[in-house]
Write a structure and sequence with these properties.
single chain; 16 strands; elongated
Length: 284
């Protein structure tokens, strides 16, 4: 049965939904359990009423397991997955029909979770605490679905060529400048000078897949970095902090001189927050 609700206008957010694909292996999963209508206005332009489909309820009620929880999978049919780079769900209120509060109040705010789907509609999920043993439905849940949509702002992505070999100077790109971001790849001489200032145990020894960079990002705009190789394929990286420096490690060997550095940044235009309300969702 379809149920319709009218929601407030969506605002903008500079912070950065947990997105996850529902786990089909959970025996208690029940797909396509409910459909909820809501009215949303994305940042910068009004949107038509969008349909949200609650397509999965994974109920892992247990008195003993540390992994017991309730996960609700939601699809936004009006939002193409290919336009969303990452997402998260910020849950504000959630109660079952026994009156129990299901919001994990002590948990840290979820980080943006990368979207790995390029086709169809975007899907997100929210994780709640265990419902009461006697509960038969999620009475109500509300909050915001947050979507990171880089295509909404040309200054959200910087592709910078010839970053290697390192020059030691801040990289030049209009998108970096627009977001107040500064990135400099350290030369071998600069790395040696850095190591001379450190205790022996803290000195950096990088392998061929690693480079050291100095990053200034006072507005916390950087969402993700990676390389783009000569074929135009994205080479993902991992990063770690080390006494004021950032170490970038590739997953595919030594970065090549013809690779570009891609920096994706969050801006007020690219992060869209959409309020949602769910009511009377049946539990398995």
């Amino acid at each position: 049965m379809k149920k319709s609700f009218r929601l407030a206008r969506a605002g903008q957010a500079e912070a950065c939904p947990t997105f996850s694909t529902p786990n089909e292996g959970w025996a208690s999963a029940r797909p396509a359990l409910a459909m909820v209508m809501f009215v949303a206005a994305f940042a910068l332009q009004a949107q038509k009423p969008a349909e949200v489909v609650v397509n999965q309820v994974n109920d892992r009620r247990s008195a003993s397991s540390t992994f017991s929880n309730l996960t609700i999978g939601i699809e936004l049919p009006s939002v193409e997955a290919k336009t969303v780079a990452a997402s998260r769900v910020l849950v504000r209120t959630a109660t079952d029909d026994s009156g129990a509060d299901l919001v994990a109040r002590d948990a840290e705010e979820p980080m943006l979770y990368p979207n790995v789907r390029d086709e169809g509609a975007i899907s997100v999920s929210m994780t709640l605490n265990n419902p009461a043993r006697t509960a038969t439905k999620l009475r109500e849940a509300s909050g915001e679905i947050e979507l990171y949509m880089p295509s909404k702002d040309p200054n959200s992505t910087a592709d910078i060529a010839k970053v290697l070999p390192a020059s030691g100077k801040p990289l030049s790109h209009k998108a970096l400048k627009a977001n107040g971001v500064e990135i400099a790849f350290l030369t071998a001489a600069q790395l040696d000078a850095e190591n001379r200032k450190r205790e022996e145990y803290a000195r950096l020894e990088l392998d061929e897949s690693e480079v050291a960079v100095r990053i200034k990002d006072p507005q916390n705009r950087i969402h993700e970095m990676g390389y783009v190789d000569a074929k135009g394929e994205l080479q993902r990286v991992s990063t770690r902090g080390d006494e004021g420096l950032t170490i970038i490690s590739t997953w595919s060997g030594k970065p090549q001189p013809d690779w570009k550095l891609r920096v994706q940044m969050k801006t007020p235009k690219t992060v869209v927050r959409v309020p949602f309300v769910l009511k009377d969702i049946a539990l398995p």
